[in-house]
Specification:
This protein has one domain. With 82 residues, the chain is mainly β. The N terminus is likely disordered. The two termini are 23 Å apart. The longest helix is centred in the N-terminal third of the chain and has 8 residues. Helices cover 10% and strands 26% of the residues.
Length: 82
């Protein structure tokens, strides 16, 4: 879960308060490269939950486990995820 931890480190709040609860990671999983056509790529998926009152923005992610790390948002809609 290296990518997820890097993503959490990149969360920021303009009105950060030490009494605000931390961002939570739920339903985390990493896609395996076993049997994949391209074994140089994988992905980590998770739901980030903000239990606090202050707005929090995910501004980036990093990991020492890969040469590149990207953040993508998936949104569930009436016709599926995009």
């Amino acid at each position: 879960m290296v990518v997820g931890l890097g993503a959490l480190a990149a969360c920021s709040s303009k009105a950060s308060n030490s009494s605000d609860p931390p961002i939570l990671v739920e339903d985390a999983w990493v896609r395996t490269t076993d049997g994949a056509t391209d074994t140089t790529m994988t992905a980590a998926f998770m739901t980030l939950v903000n239990p606090g009152d202050a707005n929090v923005s995910l501004v980036g992610a990093s990991t020492s486990a890969a040469g590149m790390c990207q953040v993508h948002e998936m949104v569930k809609g009436p016709t599926g995820s995009r």
